[in-house]
Amino acid sequence: MLNPSTTSLSKKPTQGLCSTFIIDGRVLTCVFMAKVTAAITAVQQVEKIILGIDPGTTVMGYGVINVLGNKMTVLQYGVLKLQKYDDQQLKLQKILETTIRLIKEFLPDEMAVEMPFYGVNPQSMLKLGRAQGVVMAAGLLHQIPVAEYLPLKVKQSVTGNGKAAKEQVAAMLQQLLHFRTTPEDLLDATDALAVAVCHHFNRNSLKGKTNSWERFVTENQNRVK
User: Fold this and answer.
1) How many C-beta neighbours within 10 Å does residue 10 have?
2) Is 114 a catalytic residue?
């Protein structure tokens, strides 16, 4: 053990971020550059699973992607068809069960949910809001961070055009995620993949300002009575 009262310390500068210290005649080299390089590599190679969901009471789309550094890979995507159920509560139950199944199967690190479009039909808004709430509750119950995105934000992030059609979104996702042509009945699933991709592109959204109903109300006082 070194004695603080008798230890002599001298430093010899070296190139880069490395420094060589001589303590009581013993040479100790601190290789800071190697540590910095390793830290940067680790950050670049962080692996993350994102579950994207496009809530709906007729069709719910879902998509799961794996992110490693800047590389995105599709793990699964599909739709939950709810037209055959007449009871609204039964629809919400099926949405909840499917969301929980996906969470348990893929163990996502984060969830991204598309927010309902603020239209003029209060009944539709109420139904979509309930579906979104059930999805978010499932994620929060499993302690998964949940981010929300407006459709315009999702389309803008994926295609560069906030008014892009579903087919345009699907075509861009095929290039980004390298999967085959999507059947027309799975366009809601590609919408969910788009939400997950949007979340990856806006990866700091959980740390900063998020889209939410409260934010919409604050920014659109004249539309809420």
Assistant:
1) 9
2) yes
Whether CATH 3.30.420.10 fits 46-223: yes
Edge-to-edge, what's the strand order for the sheet holding 18-23?
9-13, 18-23, 26-31
Q: CA 185 to CA 96: how far, in whole Å?
A: 22
- Residue-wise pLDDT tens digits, 105-146: 999 999 999 997 766 578 888 889 999 999 999 999 999 999
- 54 as an active site residue: the answer is yes
Distance of CA 71 to the CA centre of its chain: 14
| Amino acid in the structure at residue 210 | T
- DSSP labels for 58-78? SEEEEEEEEEETTEEEEEEEE
Catalytic residue among 54, 110, 148, 191: 54
* Residue-range domain boundaries for the chain: 9-43, 46-223
- Annotated active-site residue in 110, 114, 148, 191: 114
The residue annotated as part of the active site, out of 110, 148, 188, 191, is 188
Does the annotation mark 185 as catalytic? no
pTM for the structure as a whole: 0.72
Positions of E strands within the chain:
9-13, 18-23, 26-31, 47-54, 59-68, 71-81, 110-114, 146-149
pLDDT tens digit string along 1-39?
A: 445 444 444 444 444 445 444 445 554 444 444 544 554
